[in-house]
Amino acid sequence: MEEQNLQLRSIWGKWWEPIRKWFYPAWLIYETTVRFYDYSEATYLFFLAQNYLGELGSQILAVLCSIATFAICSFFLTVPTTFILYKFFKIETLTGTQFESKIKKYF
Description:
Largest sheet: none
Number of helices: 4
Helix content: over 70%
Distance between the termini: 22 Å
Structural class: mainly alpha
Number of strands: 0
């Protein structure tokens, strides 16, 4: 039983163990910013095609909508997920299941 509670070594080696605790939250933040840019570009093209406000109005509205979406996503998705991932890797047996020990050895 005690053998199953030990965390297995990562397939990437010992150098990966301290990095992994911050790599996944950093990757999540990177993905959020990339999606933010894609959303702002698509929003601008949509408002420009509607031709309600002209080109300058479409740019301003697209930027405002994109900033609002980024703020909402950051607050409700990124911050809690980063905290959960940090706790998941900080505590050796957070859930106490065998699945946790099996999946942690790959990360």
